[in-house]
Every structure is written in structure tokens, then in C-alpha cells.
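One record is set out below.
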Amino acid sequence: MAFSLKLYAVIKCLIAALFILNSQQTSYLLYLNNPETINKSGILHDRKYTQNTRVRYFVHYKNGTDKPQKFYMNSDLKVKSLKKSFNAHFLPDRAGAYSIRNFFTAKQTTALLNVYCILDPEDTISGIIEGEFQQNDRVVCRLGVENNPINYLDVLQLDYKLEKSLDVYMKIPSSVVIGEKIEGTVLGQYGSDIKLTVIPRKSGIMKMSFSPRGGDGLLVFSHKGKITMTDFVSVKKESDVLCIKVEKNVPEVFTFIPIGGLNYPIKINFNLYDFTDKNIA
């Protein structure tokens, strides 16, 4: 037990040093979910910004106490271009999925960050916040009303706008994976934008399906202004998502945001058919 505590302290120091080293960056993503299950009330995150900084927060916590707790996340100053979405649910993956879906359509504003809800025991709160935080602003996240800091780890990811591309040929299955291991990112890329550009090399009908590989899963994504949230699919099963008419060499752009509460990766499959192919249905 003593060794584990020492190891935890060493890891925390290393991550803190890395954070300080990179904190001069003016744009990054902050993961707030270490630890994910909170067993006592207290401060989960406390940060004062030394310069104007654009930050996306990914937040995912479970109330592991035996009573309802108040969850707060607040800023001292107004946040420019503030966009946020939170959802609480007793199923962590539902909390994550609903939060991501609503984030896609959330409107930007300039306002104080002020998030508040009651979490019942075993409930999970999951959310995304993005905005331009001003110099000298202080952001505090806590569970309950106590001011004692909980042993938490802020994990920083410098790049959260990720891009992938895929060429799709007639009657040749093509696939891409999201949430896989990528150097410089948190495993799963939770809360990151993953922009996937699919280029059909012939005109026809393109079918999209997906298969969760790390556990039961679903997709939430944007395509041509429409937000799609699929049903849950069992691990290693495959489910069709959409069929669309495509033109030769005209890109189809999809934006995915990996969901808190799920285990990644997820494989996404594309098939291109001519208009008379009976396999389209």
C-alpha cells in the first residue's frame, strides 16, 4: 500500500511537471477524470490561467460516495466563445453520449462558466467545455462543498483537432479506426474532434457501418450539418449507419468525438456500390 501511494505521488509529480512545461501553450485539451470514481467530496480541479488560453475540457466523474453530492464547475471571469454540454446519468456511457450529441449543437456565448447539478450515488457526470479563458481567470471543479483538494491528475493534450482520410473504391471494403493508440494523445482521444474525410473514387451509393472493438459501443457524429447518434451495438457486432449517394472524388466529411464511458477503439467501415447493386439494401 505504501509503495502504491509513493508511486502515485511520483506519477503525479511527473505529470505536473509535464503540464507546467507545456502550459505556455495557448491552446490545448484538459482531461478531468483522474480518478474517475470520486469516493469523497472535495476539489477536483483548481487552475489559474497566467495568459489568455483556448481550452477544451473533457470532464467525466462518477459519484462514488453513499449520498447525493453537488457538482460545481465555475470560472471567476467571463469566458469568450464559451460552448458547453453536460449530462448526468446512472449509466456512464449514456451520460457521455448525450453530452457529446448536445455539444455538437451547443451555441457559443461569452459568459461566466457556471455548471451545477446534483449527482445521486453511482451517477456519472460527463461533459465538454470549450472557450477562451482570460489571463488571471480561475477555474474550480468540485464535488460537494468541502475545500479539501482530492488527489487528482490534470492530463493535458496539446492537439485535439485530429484528422484522418480514407479513399473508397467500388466494391472494395475500406475501414478506419477511431480511439486507437496515437502518440501524443490520451488513449481513446476522448473529447477530441476527429475529422474523417472520405473520398469516393467512383460515383454511386456509399454505405457506412461500424463495429465496436473494445466493448459495447455507439457513434455520435456530424455529417453535412446533421447530428447522428446510433443505437448501442454489442462488441464485435456490425451495424449499418447510413447509405448516401456520392459523387466521384467529392469528399464526404464526418466529425466524430469519442464518448466518455465507452471502451475504444471502434472500427468504421465503408462500402461503395453502383446504383443497381442489390447489396445496397
Notes: Residues 162-273 form a domain with the Jelly Rolls fold (CATH 2.60.120).
